[in-house]
Amino acid sequence: MTARPQRRPACLQCPSPAKIKRPKNGHALCIAHFLSTFETEVLQTMETSGLFSRGETIAIGASGGKDSTVLASVLSTLNTRHNLGLNLHLLSIDEGIVGYRDHSLATVQRNARQYGLPLTVLSYRELYGWTMDDVVATVGKKSNCTYCGVFRRQALDRGCEMLNISHVVTGHNADDMAETVLMNLLRGDLPRLARCTAITTRSSSSSSSSSDASATVRRSKPLKYAYQKEIVLYAHHRKLDYFTTECTYAPEAFRGSARDLVKALERVRPTAIMDILRSGEAFAGLLRPTDGNRTLVPPQKCAEKECTCNEEDSLGTCSSTSFASGEGAMHIHEAQLRNLHHHHHHHHTTETPSPSSPSPKNPTAKRKQQLLRSCTQCGYLTSQDLCQACVMLQSLNRSRPAVMVQIEHDG
Ligand SMILES: Nc1ncnc2c1ncn2[C@@H]1O[C@H](COP(=O)(O)OP(=O)(O)OP(=O)(O)O)[C@@H](O)[C@H]1O
After folding, report:
1. Between the N and C ends of the chain, which has fewer C-beta atoms within 10 Å?
2. Least confident of 89-93, 128-132, 216-220, 400-404
3. Is residue 339 domain-shared with residue 257, that is, in the same domain?
């Protein structure tokens, strides 16, 4: 007996044979309907969360990878098709990773031409005097993601300030969000768990001229409900030009493990990604301030270090910048950075006592320290004397002479 060839099911939305079984929900769709459904879902995400307003200028954090390329393509398609009135601008950060970012930036340059969008490129070298290749030569491969995440977040803010843009979007997708929810859950980091699923967060702007704490850049993730597999399918069937190589520096180990875990769960239960994301959102609802001043998540934790309460954990999912994580060399390095920061802060408060200095008589002082002010070094808005990037740069610049001597010696 010969097996009868299985007939393809029809597309859920038209009589054509289905070509795609959606990873997200198993729906069978033809390619045209998969593409239009994907776009409609992004539009719905934008509309239900009131993400953009007509006439707004949006910077798209463009790395040349699949996520931000799909984001740029979908946003410009929707903008034209639905006459949304958005001014889109590609903003790329060149971290200075030879053999990786230089190639992906060539892709962004092509994308800018393909979509007819303006492009601005800013580099770590011009902003900080360091490339990531230099950083890795100095600190090694283990904690480099921490540096890169802090630098990139600030670089995007500075780019926005230069361009007079107050809203930046990134290509973070549902898989990235699920990873972050799991990481925060596994660390027991409730403050971060409470905010990591937000579609929009506010960051400090790099406003050196302004001490106005309201000068912040909004960061949004329009692809937060899009599965990575569907993003790849969309890019493939729309024939988008994107760069596939992974960063030459491996992701932080903990995020790598969370990523593997999400993928393993997805294999046995495809809805796992959305389930984790929805659970994260539900936790956020539970952890949010309940009544008046009372919150279930006390803010003390972040008073001890650079407060990132208004900031998401990372820009670039490889770059978990959580100072709460504690693994090997990364942990040691973070502890050094904290010490450096505390040393600096202590100096400041003893030399110039301020009425808001924390004291047993003034229990609210610590809370007040979290108010945003300008970094004494670079002017970036921060809750401490020095912003995270400047703390890191101090430590890097101290190591530089030693590294140069070593290089000269080896060379
Ligand atoms: N060098 C960069 N310049 C501008 N934006 C960036 C850069 N790197 C990352 N981003 C933004 O942060 C998002 C998440 O970055 P991540 O490093 O996780 O890359 P990814 O998940 O591979 O995304 P992509 O496929 O867009 O590279 C990107 O989609 C992009 O919007």
Report:
1. N
2. 400-404
3. no
ipTM of the complex: 0.98
- For the Cβ of 179 lying below 6 angstroms from any atom of ligand 1, the answer is no
Cβ of 205 below 6 Å from ligand 1: no
153/269 same-domain check: yes
**Residue 63 CB less than 6 A away from ligand 1:** yes
8 A C-beta contact, residue 334 and residue 392: no
Q: Beta strands 216-220 and 167-169: pairing type? A: parallel
Does residue 356 form part of some domain?
no
pLDDT in tens, 107-165: 999 999 999 999 999 999 999 999 999 999 998 887 888 899 999 999 999 999 999 99
Q: Say if ligand 1 is within 6 A of residue 172 CB.
A: yes
> Do residues 186 and 275 both lie within one domain?
yes
Is there a binding annotation on residue 60? no
Higher pLDDT, 283 or 295: 283
The answer to whether residues 46 and 163 belong to one domain is yes
Residues 273 and 336 in one domain: no
Q: Residue 171, annotated ligand binder? A: yes
Q: Please indicate if the annotation marks 328 as binding a ligand.
A: no
**Structural domain that includes position 342:** 330-346+368-410
Statement to judge: residues 195 and 285 lie in one domain: yes
Query: Is the whole model's pTM more than 0.95, yes or no?
Result: no
105 found inside a domain:
yes
Expressed in angstroms and rounded, the spacing between residue 63 Cα and the centre of ligand 1 is 5
CB 174 within 8 A of CB 224: yes
- 169-186 as b/e: b if 16+ CB within 10 A: bbbbbbbbbbbbbbbbbe
Ligand 1 center to residue 152 CA distance, Å?
Answer: 10
| Average pLDDT of the chain to the nearest whole number | 81
- Residue 316 is which amino acid? G
